[in-house]
Design goal:
The complex is a heterotrimer of chains A (324), B (280) and C (337). With 280 residues, chain B is mainly α. Chain B contains twelve helices and no strands. The longest helix of chain B is centred in the first third of the chain and has 37 residues. The chains are: A alpha/beta (324), B mainly alpha (280), C mainly alpha (337).
Chain lengths: 324, 280, 337
């Protein structure tokens, strides 16, 4: 059973008569009850992709092609105002990358929450407050926090409050965009735990977790999709990705995680020589070929097809057979 | 070879428009009096003539040629603007750099001084000081404007310095044993050149408007001519009420065009140097 | 200490410091500038006093006394400060023996009556238009509004005043050419006088409002563009909060710095409006300064400035308090970040 099904999605930024192909012909699905990890180096289009998955698209970003079906609803054909009314915050929510500044700075948190609830439900103000207090308690967050301003919270606390707010209406799908990159290790753990708890308690059904850090995905993800330069290059179960990576790029990523140097781990893919390509004018053929240690002439000329090497495992590489 | 930065700048429409307006008026002020050699301060024709082929912008109450006054006025207003801006910039940059760089009690006292002067409106301070000057030549007026207009520059420069200070290259210079003065002049100021230039442009437009304001209330230069002085006489001799439009409209138009083109110039440069503002 | 009280006491301390600095400047100027018009005036008076009219002698003595000439400087300064704080601003020369404070107080309401409504109106309209331009960025609305804002912000108040006067009072004759009411009328609380007053009020009010508006609009536009890109906007958006509500958030947050701006720009608007009074022969303090200058009535000029600056600093202080009350970040002691 799939909760989210995206097919052949193209989302481009149009800048000065040309396109930045941030998401280029991506097909991806999220199973009900599953946690999907999305990994890739910064600038590969992961953030754009997850925002596109929930149709959170505004100029200069445009959906060029493709369909997105969420919980049986074809959201790729809905208007922005309809999405805001019926989908966002209810069926799908995002925990943004910049959660530290995501809260309205001059309102108490409770007032911000009231504004959101007030729009999506017809509860009274008192009902809203008592509901939210209850939810905060369930998540081991002191309800007193609600009566503070965002600047009175620590970074980790803000992050957890944002997660709690995003999941207030029990959305089916939660998208989490690099939630831990700005946090220290112990706070990271708390945040991850909170997300796992939400999933276990069935407050959220499925989750897409975006990161450049495979080590985190190893703890929580069922499946991992690897993105490179606007394209998905490999999707497989977490164990397969970590122990038998097929795509050369995935191998580079995995090697980077295995290295003992924390600096390399932190920056992820810098382990692979070369720079990520410019998406305004991506390389021909396989986009990874300029950096690929195994590249053959065909890689430069022909775009690799998506090959289903077995059930639930796809990879986009001409040379995949030689790696198996 | 044209350096690439020039090529980039040429592409900014705003910059080209503002620069052309500004340079056109500057040229009028510089070359105008040579091409149109009419004495602006003596009677050269009948009084209060509307524009004609003989007097392109008419004459004033004393039969003086308004166009000649305008050309000389532009020249003097510009030079007062330049001098005043240079004085403000010198004070503002010095205070900003020293306080941002030194920190501690130096910074606190300099910033307190800056805040105090900032809280007192510069135009009122100018009027007050000018009121006690019996002979006000253009240089003195520039000083009066200059010494009252610097506080915002000091604050802006200080915050720039504070952010530059944390950069790596400053640490390197320090480790290399360079003295404070050398770091200020060799590392900090060159990195702020574009910013300082923008501040100068804004100071200059402010100073020209301030000069006209002082003149209007009777505290401009006591001898000689400027855009403000033309307006002052036009006002005093009831040019508006008597519909002598050629007397008060051209100097105002020049003033607004000068000030607006300078403001536009600085925003265009600002957008170029801090791309964050360009925004896509 | 309560952060709010701390904020207030710091602002109050700063207010006093600024005021004393200003008094010091005003005290120092006639004494520090050699050959200034005041000494010329004194020696003229002294020479005329030889011819012995009692009045000039009295004026001369008064001036000597008020400027404390002959006493040590620090004594002069303390006398000056204590006199100022008790509201004694000296005696007018041109209207001897009337006290400066009384005269200035009779002119001040006209200035404030113009300045305060014009400033607030320009602030409100400027901010609304600036926010509109930011919201409609890169559309025809913004492209049309921005050049107008830019030009208005660089148009001197008094020149705009001359242009408005020329168009509406000279060419079309819809408004009077100057003054605050028809000459000969006695100010009274009648409808007839009120209409006459408003008729005279319109043009000066408009020229100050329009000139000040450009600056507010530009400031607001920049702030709002910045806020529109803030993370909290995209987050609220992604939670499905309606656009109208988000715009209210943005407006609220961009307004806050504009309140501080109100305090900072009061002074330059005052400066502009003083000169505008001259253009309209409007009987406010600007007109008073203008006429006092031509009569070398220094006690009067000095007193006018003292009162104007006091009013201004007080206004700034009030705005600061208002700001602290509105922005929750100050009440809870948040600084920067």
């Amino acid at each position: 059973m799939t909760l989210l099904e995206a097919e052949h999605v193209k989302a481009y930024y149009s800048i000065r008569n040309s396109y930045v192909k941030a998401v280029d012909d991506v097909s991806l699905s999220v199973d009900r009850g599953a946690i999907l990890g999305l990994a890739g180096e910064s600038g590969c289009g992961k953030s754009t992709l997850v925002n596109t998955l929930m149709m959170n698209i505004r100029p200069p970003l445009r959906l060029i092609d493709g369909t997105i079906v969420l919980d049986g609803i074809k959201i790729s054909e809905m208007s922005r105002s309809k999405l805001k009314k019926d989908v966002w915050g209810i069926l799908v929510s995002i925990v943004p990358q910049s959660a530290l500044n995501a809260l309205m700075p001059t309102k108490k948190i409770v007032d911000f929450v009231k504004d959101i609830f007030h729009y999506h439900t017809d509860m009274s103000r008192a009902e809203i407050v008592s509901m939210v207090r209850k939810r905060f308690e369930e998540l081991n967050l002191s309800p007193e926090i609600l009566h503070l301003y965002p600047h009175e919270l620590s970074g980790g606390m803000k992050q957890r409050v944002v997660i709690a707010i995003s999941t207030l209406l029990n959305p089916k799908l939660l998208i989490v965009d690099e939630p831990t990159s700005a946090l220290d290790v112990s706070t990271q753990k708390q945040v991850i735990k909170l997300l796992v708890d939400l999933h276990r308690a069935k407050i959220i059904e499925s989750m897409v977790f975006v990161t450049h850090d495979l080590a985190i995905l190893r703890q929580i993800a069922d499946k991992i999709a690897i993105m490179y330069a606007g394209k998905i290059v490999e999707v497989a179960s977490t164990d397969d990705i970590l122990y038998t990576p097929l795509h050369p790029y995935t191998r580079g990523l995995v090697n980077a995680v295995m290295t003992p140097e924390s600096e390399v781990r932190k920056r992820g893919i810098t382990f692979i020589a070369g720079e990520p390509p410019n998406l305004l004018n991506p390389p021909s053929g396989c986009r990874f070929h300029p950096r690929c240690p195994y590249a053959k002439p065909i890689c430069k000329e022909v775009e690799p097809p998506i090959i289903e090497v077995r059930d639930d495992r796809i990879v986009a590489c001409h040379l995949v057979e030689s790696f198996m | 070879m044209i350096p690439p930065i020039v090529m980039d700048l040429i592409k900014i429409k705003k910059l080209i428009i503002s620069l052309s307006i500004f340079l056109a008026i500057v040229l009028a002020g510089l070359i105008g009096p040579i091409v149109y050699p009419v004495n602006p301060v003596v009677m050269t024709g009948p009084i209060e003539q509307p524009p004609s082929s003989k007097y392109p912008l008419g004459t004033d109450r004393w039969g003086r040629d308004v166009l000649a006054q305008l050309l000389h006025g532009i020249r003097n207003s510009l030079s007062i603007g330049l001098t005043a801006a240079a004085i403000s910039l010198a004070i503002g940059v010095t205070i900003g750099v020293v306080s941002g760089f030194k920190g501690g009690i130096t910074e606190n006292s300099l910033m307190l001084l800056t805040d105090v002067v900032y809280a007192l409106p510069s135009i009122l301070l100018m009027m007050l000081i000018a009121a006690y000057l019996e002979e006000r030549n253009p240089f003195l007026v520039s000083i009066v404007i200059g010494v009252t207009s610097w506080p915002w520059v000091a604050r802006a420069v200080r915050s720039q310095i504070l952010s530059l200070k944390t950069r790596e290259f400053i640490d390197m210079s320090r480790m290399a044993g360079l003295g404070d003065l050398r770091i200020m002049f060799e590392d900090l100021l060159p990195n702020m050149a574009s910013y300082i230039f923008m501040a100068f442009v804004l100071l200059m437009s402010g100073a020209m408007i301030a000069e006209a304001g002082l003149s209007m209330i009777g505290l401009g230069v006591t001898r000689g001519i400027s855009l403000g002085i033309i307006l002052y006489w036009a006002q005093l001799l009831e040019a508006v009420r008597r519909a002598l439009w050629w007397w008060f409209i051209p100097p105002g138009v020049c003033l607004v065009a000068l000030a607006t083109s300078l403001l536009l110039l600085s925003t265009a440069l600002d957008e170029y140097f801090s791309p964050r503002l360009r925004g896509e | 200490m309560n952060p709010f009280v701390k904020f207030l006491s710091r602002r109050a301390g700063f207010l006093v410091l600024t005021f004393i600095t200003f008094i010091f400047i005003i005290f120092l100027l006639p004494r520090a500038i050699p050959g200034n018009p005041l000494s010329t005036l004194l020696s003229q008076l002294f020479q005329r006093a030889q011819q012995n009219p009692e009045l000039i002698k009295a004026v001369y003595r008064q001036l000597m006394e008020e400027f404390g000439i002959g006493k040590p400087l620090h004594v002069q300064f303390f006398e000056f400060i204590s006199r100022t704080f008790t509201g004694d601003l000296g005696t007018s020369i041109s209207a001897y023996p009337r006290k400066v404070a009384d005269l200035v107080f009779s002119y001040l309401p006209w200035t404030l009556g113009l300045l305060i409504p014009a400033t607030l109106t320009s602030w409100i309209i400027g901010n609304l238009l600036g926010a509109l331009a930011a919201y409609k960025r890169k559309t025809i609305v913004d492209n049309a509004l921005l050049p107008v804002f830019l030009t208005l912000s660089q148009t001197p108040y008094y020149w705009l005043a001359m242009i408005l006067l020329f168009i509406f009072a000279v060419v079309f004759k819809v408004f009077p050419i100057g003054g605050a009411y028809t000459t000969g009328r006695i100010p009274a609380l009648t409808l007839e006088f009120a209409l006459d007053f408003l008729h005279h009020y319109t043009l000066p009010f408009l020229s100050i409002t329009l000139s000040a508006m450009g600056g507010w609009a530009i400031g607001m536009r920049v702030m709002a563009i910045y806020e529109l890109r803030a993370d909290y906007v995209s987050y609220a958006d992604s939670l499905g909060l309606p656009d109208s509500k988000i715009l209210r958030y943005v407006f609220r947050n961009s307004m806050l710095p504009q309140i501080t701006g109100l305090a900072l720009n009061f002074g330059s608007i005052l400066g502009g409006s003083l000169i505008t009074e001259v253009v309209f022969s409007y009987p406010g303090t600007g007109f008073l300064i203008f006429t006092s200058l031509s009569r070398l009535d220094y006690p009067m000029i000095q007193g006018t400035f003292v009162l104007l600056i006091s009013t201004l600093l007080l206004a700034n202080f009030i705005v600061d308090i208002a700001y602290a009350l509105i922005d929750p970040r100050i009440k809870t002691g948040y600084t920067g970040g």
